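Course assignment 3, question 2. Fill in each field.
Student: A.L.
Task: Predict the tertiary structure for the chain below.
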Amino acid sequence: MLPGRTAARPRVLVLRALGLGDLLAGVPALRGLRRAFPDHEIVLALPPALRDAALATGAVDTVLPAQAPGRGVPVLTGWHGDPPDLAVDLHGNGPESHAALAALAPRRILSYAAPAPVGTPAPVWRREDHERERWCRLLQAYGIDADPADVTLPPPAHPSPAPGAVVLHPGAEAPARRWPARHFVTVARQLRAADCRVVVTGGPGEEELTAEVAEGAGLEDRDVFGGGLPFAELSALVAEAACLLSGDTGPAHLAVAHGTPSVTLFGPVAPRLWGPPRDRRHTALWHPGPPGDPHGTTPDPSLLRIGTMEVLAAVLARTRQAASTAPGAGEVNDRG
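Answer field:
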């Protein structure tokens, strides 16, 4: 039996065993399920490292640890007890992810690979859909309302280790989405020259990358957060940042979730598929080119066409905009 489970409650099992960015892009769909099934226990199958992030969405009751190499489909061996009342495939278009859920004999499955309800058109997987819209559209095909703009996370309870800093996140799951470290160094140096505090973050296994950027930019040890911050600390760092600069990876989605100004660098995948919503707080930099492989082993040519000066200008624009709209900006103190 899953920890914290109340036996009397029917359960909805959702499969999205991917990364942090995938989880956050799926929040609108998860919120739609939460509203549609208020009396059910919502169980989300995803990697155990994302447990705290999943619970922070407010749409998930329980996490079922599940992961597979790369972006594969895990076998859901951790499920115990009665079959799910409903299983929802937010992992992919099938058939593997659909089969993983079907193996648990749920009463009903919502999936791009499942037959549609009688009298309704079957949901069709469209490559041109934005990721947030794709999963909302799946639920809508089954009569469940979901808003792609419903991405906001509650403010973190944890204090930021560097409030007001410009946060640089040079890493990404795949090299195809990693802008060169030397370019991050150039931008960091210029930001420091403009009197910005700069900090660097990295995920597990990215200690060498964050150290390279930090050393090149002349940062102090207190400004380096390599090796993967716990989610509560990462969330607070991003939420209270002046701006986040990153590639197309998890922290970029976290900035959107907290309304933090951001500059995101795109290469193999266009921003219209994975980028931030249209909002003056967020800048997506992209030089159009042929579609690339987001999981490729070398930096994508489109990503490499993004120059350091255009990135610097975008980050400074976002930080200055944030400063001008901060509470008290431009306020006159008349106390003499």
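Instructor remarks: DSSP finds twelve helices and eleven strands in the chain. Residues 166-324 form a domain with the Rossmann fold fold (CATH 3.40.50.2000).
Grade: pending
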